[in-house]
Every structure is written in structure tokens, then in C-alpha cells.
Amino acid sequence: QVQLVESGGGLVQAGGSLRLSCVASPLTLDYYAIGWFRQAPGKEREGVSSISSSDGYTYYTESVKGRFTISRDNAKNTVYLQMNSLKPEDTAVYYCAAGRFSLSPNVYSYWGQGTQVTVSS
Which of 4, 77, 103, 120 is 20 to 30 A removed from 111 (C-alpha atoms)? Predict the structure, then answer.
């Protein structure tokens, strides 16, 4: 059974930083684009960032450009989301997913259980 496990969430003050990690087993992440999504209470799931499987292309939603950085370490089967200059509006449950290179959740086949990120003002 494929599992994606996120970690690194928590409570941080506005302006602070967090690094989220996504580890997969037994899935080999090399063959998949990996996306980070978030969902705040009462809102739809939103694509935050995506990284392609092999050539490192990245997408970012406009609201996080210049603040968030997605990266992958295929040797560790891990994808990271470095989040800097966090804002209260970044508060949400963050999910990683494996699938096709896109910010649309509809093209992702495998999902983690999510990690809570809370940014206080």
C-alpha cells in the first residue's frame, strides 16, 4: 500500500519559517511529480506548489511566490516545502501528493494524511 507521510507542520509566528517534508513508501517518487496542497477550514483544497519528476520544473501559486521553495531529494525519496515569511493566511492543513505535474488536485493519485500549519499574528 502506497503511503505518503508529511511532517514539519506546527505553530509559528507571522514572519517565521517552517520546512515540510513528504516521504513516500513503497512508492518511488522519482517517477512522479509531487505537489503540495493546502486546505483551510471552509475553503477548497488549493494547489500551493508542484515539482516535476525528473527535470526539476516547479509551479507556485501566486500567493506564495518568493516565499516558498519546493525541492526534492530522490535519493531520500523525500520532497520538501520550505516556507519563509509565513503569514496568518497560510494557516491550513498541508498535504503532499504524487501524480502529474500540475497545481490541480484532480491529477494526483496518492495523498498523504496532512500536517497542520498555524501562523499566528
Answer: 120
Q: What is the DSSP string of the chain?
A: --EEEEE--EEEETT--EEEEEEEESS-GGGSEEEEEEE-TTS--EEEEEE-SSS--EEE-GGGTTTEEEEEEGGGTEEEEEE-S--GGG-EEEEEEEESSSS-GGGEEEE---EEEEEE-
Given a cut of 90, is residue 42 above it in pLDDT? yes
At 14, the amino acid letter reads A
pLDDT at 27 over 80: no
- Give Cα 98 to chain centroid, integer Å: 10
Q: Which of 104, 107, 51 is nearest to 80 (CA)?
A: 51
Sign of the Cα pseudo-torsion (62, 65, 67, 73, in order): positive
Q: Exposed/middle/buried for 105, CB within 10 Å: 0-12, 13-18, 19+? A: middle
